Amino acid sequence: MTKHALVIGVTGITGNNIAEELVSNGWKVTGLSRKPGLMIAGVENVYADVMKPDELTDAIADLGVTHLFFCTWSRQVTEAENCEVNGAMLRNTLSAVNAKKPIEHAVLITGLKHYLGPFEDYAKNPAETPFRETQGRLPGLNFYYVQEDELFASAKKHGHTWSVHRPHTMIGYALGNVMNMGVTLAVYASICKHTGQPWVFPGSPEQYNGVTDVTDPRVLAKHAFWSATDPAARNEAFNTVNGDVFRWRQLWTAIGEYFGLENPGHPGEVSPLEPRMSHADDVWAEIVATHGLQDNAASELASWWHTDADLGRTSETFADMSKSRDLGFLEFQTTIKSFTDLFDRLRAERIIP
Q1: pTM for this one?
Q2: Has residue 225 been placed in a domain?
Q3: Where in the sequence numbering do the catalytic residues fall?
C-alpha cells in the first residue's frame, strides 16, 4: 500500500528536509503551510491555518494520509501561552488528520528544550549531560511536554503509533527561519570580512570551551523516516544529533578559516550579536551591491536573538544517541561539513559572497 505523508511546516528547515527524504523513498507527500513558500519537487501543497480547526479539517481530512510529520511551532510571549497555542496546533492537526480514517503513525519534532527548559528559564536548571531519553521531565511549564501529551492522547484514542524527535540547534539550508544559526553565522562572517571587524565569538566562555553538538536536518529527516517505518522505533522518543561533539573554540576557528577570518579567542565577556548587528541591514545592502547577491536584507536572513540565546548558555549541552544506535539507526554527520555544505550552497545561490 502506498504511504501518504502529511508534513506540517513543510516550508521550514525541518519540514522541507523530511519532505525531500520521503519523496526520495517513493512516498506520496503533501505539505501543509499557511501560505505558499519553498516548493519541493514531488510534493503537493495544501494551505490552511492549524489554529482554525474547520479550515484545517476541510484541507486534510479527505487526503487519505497514513503518516503525519509535525514540524512547526509558534513562539508566544510566555511559556503558558506557548503551551496553549502549540498544544492546540498539534491537537487540531491530529483531530483533523484522524477525522475520516485513523493514520498509522505520527512523528512529532520538538527539541532539546525538553532537557534545557523553556525560553523563560532557558538552561537555568538543565538536566545532566549527556542528555538521555530516560531522564524525566523538568519541573514547570514546557510546551514540548504539552505536545507530547496531546500525541499520547491521540494515539490512545485513534490507535496509531508515534515517535518523538528531540534535535539540537539545526544547521542547514533555510531562509527566513527564526532559529537558523548556520545562515546567521554566514551573514555575520560576511559582514566581518566586508568591514574588517574581528571574528569575535558572541557567546559565553562556557559555550566557547564546553562540549556541545548540533543537528543536521538531513540526519533528522533520515531519523524521522526510520522512526516512522521501523517497528523497533514505534512509541519511542529519540534524541537527534549529528553523532559527533565539538567545542566552539575549535569550530569557530574552522568557520573563520572558511571565510578567511582569524579567531581572536574569546573576548572575556559575552558580546551578543543582536545589539552589535543593529545596523546590519545597511552594511548588507553594500555587500549585496558589491557582490551582486540576491536582494535580501540581513534581518530577513539572520536570527541574531536565537544565536545569542544558543551561544550565551552557561551550561554544557549535548545529547546521547545510544538508544537509536541500539535500535538500528546508524546515520551520522560530521559537524564542520554541516556548516561548510550550507555555506557552499549559500554561495552557489548568491545569498552570501
Answers
A1: 0.94
A2: no
A3: 113, 144
